[in-house]
Amino acid sequence: MENVHLAVEEDYLYSGYNDFNPTFDSEEFENDVGFQQAVRTSYGRRPPIGGKFPGTAIGARPLFSSSGSRMPLASSMGRPLTGAVQDGAARPMSAVRAAGYTSSLTRGSTFDPLGQSRGPAPPLETKNEDTPEEKIKLLEKKLNNLIEESCMAQSTGNLQLALDKAKEADRKERALVKQKEQLGSVDHINLDLTYSVLLNLANQYENNEMYPEALNSYQFIVKNKMFNNAGRLKVNMANIYYKQKNYHKAIKFYRMALDQISNAHKDMRIKIKQNIGVVFLDMGQYSDAIASFEDIMSETPNIRTGFNLILCYYAVGDREKMKKAFQKLISVPLCINDEDKYIPPNDDTSSNMVIEAIKNDQLYQMERDLRAQAEKYIMTAAKLIGPATETSFASESDWCVDTVKNSQYVQLANDLEFHKAMACLRQKDHNQAKEILKTFEKKDSRVKSAAATNLSFIYFQEKDFNQADKYADLAMNADRYNPAALTNKGNTLFVKQDYEKAAEFYKEALRNDSSCTESLHNLGLTYKRLNHLEEALDCFLKLHAILKNSDQVMYQLAELYEQLGDRQQATKWLMQVITVTPTDPHVLAKLGKLHNDEGDKSQAFQYYSESFRLFPCKIDVIEWLGVYYIESQFFEKAIQYFERATLIQPTQVKWQLIVASCYRKSGNYQKALETYKGIHRKFPENVECLRFLVRLSTDMGLKEVQEYATKLKKAEKMKEIREEKVKSGQGNTVGGRREGSGGSADSNHSSGSNRGERLSAKMRALPVSNDPYEANSPKELDASYMDPLGPQMERPKTGAKKHVDDDDFGDEELGDDLLPE
Questions:
Q1: Distance in angstroms (rounded) separating the CA atoms of residues 537 and 561
Q2: Helix axes 551-563, 517-529, angle to 10 degrees
Q3: Of these four, 208, 468, 562, 793, which has the most CB atoms within 10 Å of its CB?
C-alpha cells in the first residue's frame, strides 16, 4: 500500500472556454453613449481621458456587462487595440476577425469566413470611352495594328496590300495629330509612332518601285529635326538612286550618311563604304572602287569585298595584285565553328538527340549558306585569275590549286582541278582533259565517280564505246547512286542495240534521281526502238511537264502520235514546235507531209514553200513542190525546182529527165532536145533518154534518128544481158552475192538509167501519152534520200551536262552538278 498512490484530480482539459469576455459583447453598444457619439462623430478617434484599461494603452469607460455589473470598455470604438504596448512589452497581433471569429458567432450565426452569404460582388465600373483621352488611345492602338498588318503583308509578298495599309495608317496618324492639337495636348504627340508610320510608308513605296514617292517620304523624315538618328535613312535614299542608275547622287547620299554615323557603329560604316565601292565599280571608276575596297580589307576584311577587289584588278589588268587579293580572299576567316560539333562524341543517347536537333536548325543552315557563298566567290575568282595571270593555262591552274591547298578551303582544290579538266575540254585538248580526270581515280569515291562519269562521256563522244563502258562501270562502282553514271552505262548499251538492259539502267537512274531528264529522254527513245509506243509516249509526256519549251521533246511526241495513227495530235504538237523554233525547215516539211496525207494540198504547199525558203537544199521538199507544179500544169515553175535538184544530186539522172520532159510538155521541143542530148552525153547507156531522143528526132525530122535508134538497140540488149545475169545468179547464194556486188557497181555507174526505166514504165502505163510526168501522186517519184536531221533527233543523251563546243560534241552537256561539292 505504500507504493500505491492515489491519482490527483487534474484540471479539466477544456476548462475556461465557457468564460465570456464582456469586451466582445455587442448587444450593449446601443446603450453606450460614448460609442454612439463616436459612431456619429469623429470623437471616437480621440484618445479618451481617464485611467488605462489593463492590457491596452487607451483609457476605458465603464460598461455594463450582460450580468448587470459594470465593466470597463477597451476603447470607444468597441474593439481593443491588440497591437498596443502593455506593461512596456509589445503584444503579438491576433487574428480574431481574419479567422472569422466574431461576437455574432456566439449568438448562433453560421460560420462564413469567405463572406459568401453577402452575395456576388458589384460589377466593375466601365470605362467611359467617350473621353478624348480614351479616343486617342484607341486611335494609337489602331495605328500600331495597321503598321503590323502592313509589315505582315509585305513578308507574304502582297506588296499592294502592304502599301494600302501603310497609306491608311498615314491618314489616321494625321487625323490623330489634328485631334491632339484641338485638345491642346501638342506636347503629348507620340513621335515614335509618327516616325514608324512615315518610315513604313516610305518602305512600302520603295518595295512597290514608286521611287519618287519613297524619296519624298524619306526626305520628310530626314528634314524633321525632332526625329533622332534620321540621317541614317539617307542610305535608303542612296539605294533608291542606285536603282535608278543615278550613281552620282547615290554616292553623294552614301557619303552624307557616312558623315552622320559615328565611329562607334563600325559595321554600318563598313557596309556604306562597300556600297560606295560597288557604285564606283558600276560607273567604271575602278581606281576609286579599288581605294574603297582596299580600305575595307585593311579594316575589316570580308569575302564579298575581297571578291569585288579582284574584279577591279581584273578590269584594270593588274595581274600581280590579283594574286595578292586572291591570297587575302582565301585568308578571310568565316567565323564558323568546326562541323565536328555535329558528330556525336559517344554513345550517349541524350547527346545524340541534341546533335540531331541542332543539325538542321537555322543556325546550321546559315553557316552552310555562308560557306557555300564563300566557296562560290573563291571558285569564280580562281576562274578569273586563270586566263589573266599566265600565258600558260596549265601553270596558272597549278598555282591556284597550290594556293587553295594551303588555305582553309582545302576541299576546293579538287573542284579547281576539275575545272581545269573542263577548260581543257572546251579548248578541245581532249588528251590533257583525260589525263587530269584520270588522276581522280585514287581520290575518294564521290570525286572518283564524277571524274569517271566525265571520262565515259568523252569516250562516248569519241565513239570509243568500249572505254566509255569501262569508265561507266567504274563510276557506278564508286557511287551506285550516281544517275549520270547509270545514264552513260545505258547509253553504251543503247548503241550496242541492247535496248532491254539499257532501259533497266535508265529506270535505275530515274529511281535515284527523278529529275534526271537525260535518263527520261533516253528511256523514251529506248521504248520507241522496242516499239513500245505507249510507254515511250508516257515518258515524253512526263519530260514535257519538266521541259515545257523543249522542241526536241515536242517533236518526239509528234512522231509518236503519228506512228499511233493520231495525225491530229501529231499536227498539234508540231505546231507547238513551230512556236518555239519557227525557222526549223525539217518541222515545216513534216507539217506539210501530214497535211498532204490528210488531202489538204493548199496547206501542205504553204508549209513546203516555207521550208524550201529556209533551207532550199532539202531534196524531198524540192521533189514535192516540183510535182505539185506539174500537177497544176505550171511546167516552167516545176523546171526551177528540178534544176535545183539536179545541182544537188548531179549523178541522179531522173531529175534531168524530168526537166527535159517539162520542156517538152510546155512546147519547147528544141530546149527539150538539147536537154536530152546533154543527158545522153553524161549517161550514154540510159535507155529512157535514147527513146525520147529517137521520138523527138523522128517528129522533128532530124538526121540523127538512125544513130540514136542503133544506140537504143545496143542499150536494150545490154540491159537484157544484165537482167539474165542477175536471174542466173539467184540459184547460187555466194555467187549471186558476188555477181550482185559487181552488178551494183555497174548500176552505180548507170543508176540514173534504172530510175529512168522505172519512169518509162510509169509513162507506158498512162492511157493518152508516154509522158511520165502526168502522175496522179507525188509518191510515185520516190527519192532514195534520208534527211540527216532525222537520226539526230533520236541520238541518246549522255549523262554529263557541262556545255561543250557543239562542233565537237553535238548537243550534249557536262554539268557543274557532277563536280565534287
A1: 8
A2: 20
A3: 468
